[in-house]
Automatic annotation (TrEMBL):
Belongs to the 'phage' integrase family. Pfam families: Phage_int_SAM_1, Phage_integrase. Site-specific tyrosine recombinase, which acts by catalyzing the cutting and rejoining of the recombining DNA molecules. Residues 156-345 form the Tyr recombinase domain. Residues 38-131 form the Core-binding (CB) domain. Keywords: DNA integration, DNA recombination, DNA-binding. SUPFAM superfamilies: DNA breaking-rejoining enzymes (SSF56349). One of its GO terms (molecular function) is DNA binding. GO terms for biological process: DNA integration; DNA recombination. It comes from the Bacteria. This is Integrase.
Length: 377
């Protein structure tokens, strides 16, 4: 049995939480209320706590996104339609309200098209669950399904780092208090091309040596999909030195990258990584004022572009990055012929490699690496 209660955030904004004797890990203050549509409240709880988690096996970031989108839609209904949390009904999830919600995101919250479309996708996903539970009729859901995405008319400047700039960043963090940790973290972000949450979710045993002195890193990406990415000898050497210093206890339950809170080791937050990069950016801008903004995803984009510039086939890059569709990777192919020639000239110089024994183009026709990327070995 699910019981609805209110969660009041720091901004005094009400949102939905669900309490059940089976799910007691969240210690939120509980206030019993009587919603107008108790089944809807129950379905929201089941969708987030059971369906997404157990049935669909979605990762934590995806679940947080769905929860935030539903809360945002409820906030919109409250501020614009006068529908409170107590009076919310299944019928409020309709085409007209969702279209107005998208317009509100654009005009009031200044969200871009990609963000609006992401919220639409989340709300549509929840409405599909309501359909499965017969809370919405097929005709009602069809009206919601027909809502078009917003066109993204922004001019996106696609930027990435040069190998020299990556090397400068690594040199910069070498002066940090936790230089060994920060150097290894950024090196791993760049070489693996992984998402920041994938890297921060690693445990020490997720990186394993290979017979040739290199290593493999085992990632569990979106939807907990497993993939293996090769690492160079230099990264394996950094990993060993890092573990000798930061994982002397060899506790397999610890995260590879951690920070101390209340005397305990906790998974390092992406905010901590952003702070490291921000400090580095401020320092490097003293000598290079035109340096692009540094953020964790930039290393993933940079690695993909360096691989593409080195003529690594797109399907291989797609496997490397963990893209579910190679069409996603084709974005990196949208560069001019002049940029291609310039990049090829840069990469033809072995001195331009970030790591001396790590030439990115060596993976272009390496059958052994391809098998590892595809999970065949």
């Amino acid at each position: 049995m699910f019981i609805c209660f209110l969660i009041i955030s720091g901004r005094q904004r009400a949102s939905i939480g669900i309490y059940s004797p089976r799910y007691t890990e969240r210690r939120w203050p509980v206030m019993r209320i009587s919603p107008k549509d108790p089944r809807l409240v129950s379905l929201i709880g089941e969708f987030i706590k059971v369906y997404l988690t157990r049935v669909r096996n979605r990762d934590e970031d995806t679940i947080v996104s769905y929860r935030y989108s539903i809360n945002l839609f409820i906030e919109y209904l409250g501020t614009q339609k006068g529908v409170s949390l107590l009076t919310l009904q299944t019928s409020d999830f309709n085409q007209a309200n969702i279209i107005d919600f998208m317009l509100w995101l654009k005009t009031e919250r200044k969200n871009v098209a990609t963000t609006i479309n992401h919220r639409l996708s989340d709300i549509r996903g929840f409405c599909h669950y309501l359909l499965k539970k017969k809370a919405l009729t097929p005709d009602e859901f069809e009206e919601i399904r027909e809502i078009n995405d917003y066109d993204d008319d922004r001019i996106i400047e696609f930027t990435w780092l040069t190998t020299d700039e990556v090397a400068s960043i690594l040199n910069c963090v070498d002066s940090n208090r936790d230089a060994a940790r920060d150097h290894f973290l950024i090196s791993l972000l760049y070489e693996s091309g992984a998402r920041i949450n994938e890297v921060l979710s690693l445990k020490p045993h997720d990186i394993k040596p290979t017979s040739n002195g290199e290593a493999d890193v085992h990632f569990y990406g979106k939807g907990n999909k497993h993939r293996i990415t090769p690492l160079s000898k230099e990264i394996w050497k950094q990993y060993c030195g890092y573990c000798d210093r930061y994982h002397q206890e060899k506790n397999e339950q610890d995260y590879l990258f951690y920070s101390f809170r209340n005397g305990r080791r906790n998974k390092m937050s992406s905010d901590n990584v952003s702070r490291i990069l921000s400090e580095c950016e401020n320092e490097l801008r003293k000598k290079k004022p035109d340096l692009i903004h540094l953020h964790s995803h930039l290393f993933r984009r940079t690695r993909a572009m360096h691989l593409y510039q080195a003529k690594v086939p797109l399907p291989t890059i797609s496997e490397w990055l963990g893209h579910s569709n190679v069409e996603t990777t084709r974005f990196y192919a949208k560069v001019t012929e002049e940029m291609k020639r310039e990049a090829l000239h840069k990469l033809s110089n072995s001195d331009k490699s970030v790591f001396k024994d790590n030439e990115v183009f060596k993976y272009a026709d390496d059958e052994d690496v391809l098998k590892r990327l595809c999970g065949l070995k």
